Amino acid sequence: MNLKIKYLYVFCICFLIAAQNGYSQTSKKDLLKLEVSKNHHYFVTENGKPFFWLGDTAWLTFGRLDREGVVKYFQNRKEKGFNVVQVMVLHTLNVTNVYGDMALVNEDVSQPLTTPGNDFNNPEEYDYWDHVDYILDVAQQNGIYVGMVPVWGTNVAKGDKVSKEQAQKYAQFLANRYKNRTNIIWLNGGDTHGNEFMDIWNTIGSTLKTTNPNQLVTFHPFGRTDSSEDYHKASWLDFNMFQSGHRRYDQDTLPNSFKEDNYKFVHRDFDLKPTKPTLDGEPSYEGIPQGLHDTLQPLWKDNDVRRYGYWSVFAGAAGYTYGHNAVMQMFRKGDNPAYGNKVFWYDAIDAPGAGQMVYIKKLMLEFPYFDRVPDQSLVANSGEKYNYLAATRGKDYALIYTYNGKKIEVNMGKINGKKVKACWYNPRNGKKTKIGTFDNKGVHEFLPIGQNVDGNDWVLILTSK
After folding, report:
1. Which fold has domain 31-366?
2. Could you give the C-alpha distances from 302 to 63, 313, 352, 400, 406, in angstroms and in order?
3. What are phi and psi of 292, to 5 degrees?
4. How many helices (H) and strands (E) does the chain have?
5. Beta carbons of 149 and 187 less than 8 angstroms apart
6. Is 55 helix (H, G, I), strand (E, B) or coil?
7. Residue extents of the structural domains in the chain
8. pTM summary value
9. What is the pLDDT of residues 9-19, one digit of tens each?
10. What CATH number does the domain located at 375-464 have?
């Protein structure tokens, strides 16, 4: 037999055997390791290329999705440009996945329930953690990093469910099991107050980081709070994450709250020392009631998630996490809905906002990435609340976002060149409309296309000529 034909024959036989054993679905080269950029404001892959975090919130994936659903979900998110998915490892201490596998022995985080082997067709072998492994493999196949919350904050906040010793053993289990994974990011905490049970959160964070220094770690905090408030200088915290929350301006009565102005979190974090990236890890979800708990309130829409995205990224954030009410809880037929949800997850993955998020990612990667800084001095008429105009620039470009089609008055001369070219960028579809060429001096007014109404959002792009 010809030697080349022989090798081809052997390869085909091996491939068929692997496929029969289920390996063809999960074998794929590791994703590039994520790192913090040299200027410490953004993320890069290990080869130095920009990584714009475009996240989705899919908290209950490990418990509620079967294998078919996992493949459908991650393929959809890949097609829409997402590169990070945020999930809970343990939503509750008695969590059971769709196959009936419990995660823990006696609801004790220090005793993960594992079995020898991982044969999906053998229930005595296949366990909760094998299903997590499968999901991580599918995510990796689709080029997606998984932001994993070890244990949701409410389980710790109960006070007697998780001790420091149990937390250390559990974190060590996670660190050992996933130390060779390159597509894991750890989100310590989980919708919880950072100044409570700090010994436990510090134990989890330091255990994960010490064991696996190449995996990024942050803290996912309670609504309208930020990891930087309690853990900015913690040695285990690589980047900051804040939750801008789900309330309207008029619904938030908390003192000193940034309310809907999520860009204020970024402005504050951007100037902290040591310098660390920051991003909005949970803004208002598309399809969730404004204020969260009153289901009779209007729902947040696609224009709202766009606004939070552009506001925070133009303020200097390293990315942005989108969310949808149905997808974050992976709502299925027969589930008890949270927050008034009435849409199934497999329909909601194609909601308008989900398809529009990719355009902010594409815009940011179109220009030189690492010299980008927030610069409100570009705008002569910045405004407040929904009239706020968010501005960012590099050396040869400037971007200004209006949420409602408000006129933009630009202080020219902030970027290089005697002349600048101007165009409008549509956040709903990524299309550009040319405006013209202008002298790069003085103040120039630009009037967006369409009416001055909330949701008629545009990005003014200025480039050096």
Report:
1. TIM Barrel (3.20.20)
2. 27, 17, 6, 19, 19
3. 85, -55
4. 14, 22
5. yes
6. strand
7. 1-28, 31-366, 375-464
8. 0.94
9. 433 333 333 33
10. 2.60.40
